[in-house]
Amino acid sequence: MRTHYDSRAYRRNRMERYMLVGGRCERAGCGVKLKGPLHEDGVPWQSHHVNNPVGDPDAVHNLRCLCHQHHNRYTKG
What we know:
Layout: H1 8-20, E1 45-49, E2 63-67, H2 68-76
């Protein structure tokens, strides 16, 4: 089980990334609104860790906000 996803630092960084990218999917060409403080009507999303993180893997610069569709593409294949 990945308990670090419950940490305050991870959740704070995840939301900071969301705000930094304007609450939109970061997959090139997508840009769909992601559900959260900026877009109540947005789609569900997940944060994605870059493959070769520099420093803390949960740092803001190592996270990407992706809609479920694109997150599944990265993680499933």
